[in-house]
Give the backbone structure.
Amino acid sequence: MESITVRHVVAIPFPRQSHINAMMGVCKSYSSKQGRGILITFVVTEEWLSYICGSDPSKLNDNRIMMGIHVPFNVPMESTPFNGMEFEADEIAYDFYNEYGRKAGFSIRKDKKNVVNEFIVEHDHYLHLPSTVHMMPSQRKVAATHAIEIDLAHESGLRLKQSYELLSKQVGRYDNLGFTKQDHKNNLRTKRQRDMEHGEAASLGRYFSRQLKENPSYYFATQLDCEELITNIF
């Protein structure tokens, strides 16, 4: 069953953090009991904008600031991060938060920061429905069975587009696959890179490397087709 989002608009002349926190507490309780997500939109007035920013609201195209806050409702407490939570390794922390994002309906990505000292459950962007979370960037993956079928289709001479369409028909439609056409292409590229480490292509590569070391003026070039397969070597 797909989740239903109920939209509430709250007009607060001079919103304070305590007002917002109180409203969030009420909405979390409501969404948990009703089994529905909630989008709260705070309408900030001209007076508040002028008070905070010291700017002239008449110069703005829209004299209101709309702050949309989305509250996940279908995530159990044991799967929800909290301040002070500790993990034994970075990958464990990533897997935990990635799973939380899947249940809550948003995608995550890695950056160079390793310390999280605050967790805010509310999100200022739309959350994905449970029926579509498997297509978020952090959740997409090529299953082992599909990887085998991709290899077989490639070895049979099917082009990437034909192979992807064939797999899609087997599962009903594209979004049932759990990965995109680009993921399909990346899977083939990764396999080719592994294959390049062995076999004829690898032998040619080593031969060219030796020739370049012995003769710096030695030149060679390769030509690839639209699916990045070697078609000619000059």
Remarks:
- Residues 144-196 form one domain.
- Residues 222 and 233 are 4 Å apart (CA to CA).
- The first strand starts at residue 5 and ends at 12.
